[in-house]
Design brief:
It is a single chain. The protein has 510 residues and is an alpha/beta fold. Among the domains are: 158 residues, Rossmann fold (3-Layer(aba) Sandwich); 133 residues, Rossmann fold (3-Layer(aba) Sandwich), CATH 3.40.50.2300. It is elongated. The structure holds nicotinamide-adenine-dinucleotide. Nicotinamide-adenine-dinucleotide binds next to loops. The site of nicotinamide-adenine-dinucleotide has 22 residues, from loops.
């Protein structure tokens, strides 16, 4: 057990590629109360190398010599992924604080068991999601949360290099924990669905190239490409917002973050499909001054602090479990030819409600909420509520053969709800083009006009996301069985602002 509150005696297990980095950083933390005491590796060459480099560190061949040593307060595990669970379990049961390299474990059940043990023994359990301690990633998180980029619509991450090829885990488990942990940290929420495809070429049973898609609900999707078969080392993430775009290049020395004032603007009002023109914006590039420090140093210092003060770590078991859940879902998809894995269904019943609450609602100051999954429900309260802050704009298409009616209804909608972008269409063809390109949340049409609602309905119903759209008919639609499937509101042909407001409210209120 810890002899004094301010001294944490640390043992590092595993001295291959990554372990020495932990030893170096813990050694540098002596003034903060860390004592880098012991290191273990099975491989004599690795032991020799560590003994030569770090005098004063006792080097042993067996992890048990560290875990069972009463003089050691905390154990850092830098062993292969398949050994993480067993090593962490033994260390927690021996009453040690534990730092486990990423990924925490390979299943949610294992994460759950380690969480239980850490609580039972009142020990710190932390996972090495190193990038969450990077100054650049924290800058990005603040930029996104403060709305600097506007509404985030797309994230792309590229993490490729030639090697290092592993045989124990595939490239998804080796590299993607970084991308996933950064995304969950920046967004503060889990994806709704996960999809992955990969190829195994060097070792036919271990994927060395993979592409992962994360659907975060609403309008946000993310792509991750990870590879051990690429000529260049690239660690680049792009965050695309509807106001600005941000590129994070971890390989760059002085310009890790660049913010581009670029975007595509969609006009808020247009009358016919032919009027419609996108505007491309090319503005300045901002390169913020970042006071970079080695993220692993910050991570190690945080771990020591948590041990000393009994604090919950920023990357505790809930954070480890969240990343593990996404990795497991990606692995499941990979094994099933890229099938879409619904995360809710995938995790259902596998962890206790208490731990799931920790995972989704945050531990150690994080908040990981669930993304809204179904757009109509997600939009329901936001559409016409007075003074309600909306995270996103809503889109409506107004269909009527008569130009004056179209303009009237469009004006009414934007008056009720300044968050609405409204397109108008005179014909069914134009309306269908809008549905295709604009993905409206709401279509308003006049049952009696030339715009046949059934053509639009049939088209919408054939689309995978079609049910996300609501339809309001103006005049005479209430008795129609097909329309009533869409929970439409019906109005008299003689439309007033209040009638339309009431209808829109009734459509979105339930
Ligand atoms: N946070 C990061 O950025 C980062 C970077 C690289 C690796 N990692 C993680 O670090 C861990 C180790 O990766 P690596 O690249 O150093 O692997 P590695 O194979 O180079 O090293 C693992 C070492 O552990 C030793 N070992 C295994 N089981 C042992 C045991 N029971 N007792 C003593 N020694 C044992 C092996 O002999 C080997 O030297 C992995 O979980 C990896 O994902 C994290």
């Amino acid at each position: 057990m810890m002899a004094e509150l301010d001294a944490v005696r640390i043992g590092v297990v595993g001295c291959g590629y990554w372990g020495p980095n932990l030893i170096r950083n813990f050694s540098a933390l002596r003034p903060a109360g860390a004592v880098m005491a012991m290191a273990a590796d099975r491989d004599p060459a690795r032991r020799r190398s560590v003994a030569e480099r770090f005098s004063g560190v006792e080097v042993v061949d067996d992890a048990a010599a560290i875990i069972d040593n009463p003089e050691i307060d905390a154990v850092a595990l830098a062993t292969p992924v398949r050994d993480h669970f067993e090593g962490a379990r033994r260390a927690l049961e021996a009453g040690k604080h534990v730092l486990v390299e990423k990924p925490l474990v390979t299943t949610l059940e294992e994460a759950s068991e380690l969480w239980r043990l850490a609580n039972e023994h009142d020990r710190v359990l932390m996972v090495g999601h190193t990038y969450e301690y990077a100054v650049a990633v924290n800058y990005i998180r603040n930029a996104v949360n403060e709305g600097m980029l506007g509404e985030l619509t797309y994230i792309r991450s590229l993490r490729v290099n030639l090697g290092v090829i592993r045989n124990d885990v595939n490239v998804v488990w080796d590299l993607a924990p970084h991308d996933i942990s950064i995304m969950l940290y920046v967004l503060g929420r889990l994806p709704v669905a996960v999809q992955a495809m990969g190829k195994a070429r060097v070792n036919r049973s271990v994927e060395d190239i993979a592409s992962i898609t994360l659907d975060f609900g609403e309008d946000l999707m993310a792509n991750i490409i990870v590879s051990w078969r690429d000529p260049q080392k690239v660690r680049q993430m792009t965050f695309v917002g509807d106001r600005q775009m941000l590129v994070y290049d971890d390989v760059s020395v002085n310009e890790k973050v660049r913010i581009f004032d670029k975007g595509v603007d969609v006009p808020r009002r247009y009358d016919t499909f032919g009027d419609f023109q996108y505007t491309y914006r090319y503005g300045d590039i901002l390169i913020p001054m970042l006071d970079e420090q080695e993220p692993l140093f910050i991570e190690c210092r945080h771990f020591v602090e948590c041990c000393q003060l009994g604090k919950d770590p920023q990357t505790g078991p809930a954070s480890g479990a969240a990343v593990t859940a996404v990795l497991e879902a990606a692995q499941h998809s990979l094994a099933n030819n890229g099938s879409v894995v619904d995360l809710d269904e995938f995790v259902d019943g596998r962890v206790t409600p208490e731990f799931w609450k920790d995972i989704t609602q945050g531990a150690g100051g994080r908040r990981l909420g669930r993304a809204a999954t179904r757009r109509p429900e997600g939009d329901a309260t936001a559409v016409v509520g007075d003074g309600v802050q909306r995270p996103t704009r809503r889109r409506a298409v107004v269909v009527d053969a008569d130009q004056a009616t179209r303009a009237f209804v469009a004006d009414a909608l934007t008056t009720f709800e300044p968050g609405f972008d409204v397109a108008t269409a005179a014909t069914v063809e134009d309306a269908l083009e809008w549905v295709e390109s604009f993905h409206p949340h709401l279509v308003v049409f006049n049952q009696d006009s030339t715009a046949n609602p059934h053509a639009i309905l049939d088209d919408l119903m054939s689309r995978p996301d079609g049910r996300h759209c609501r339809i309001v008919t103006l005049g005479g639609g209430a008795g129609d069985s097909r329309l009533s499937e869409w929970r439409h509101g019906a109005l008299n042909a003689d439309v007033t602002l209040n009638d339309l407001l009431a209808a829109v409210r009734s459509v979105f209120a339930d």
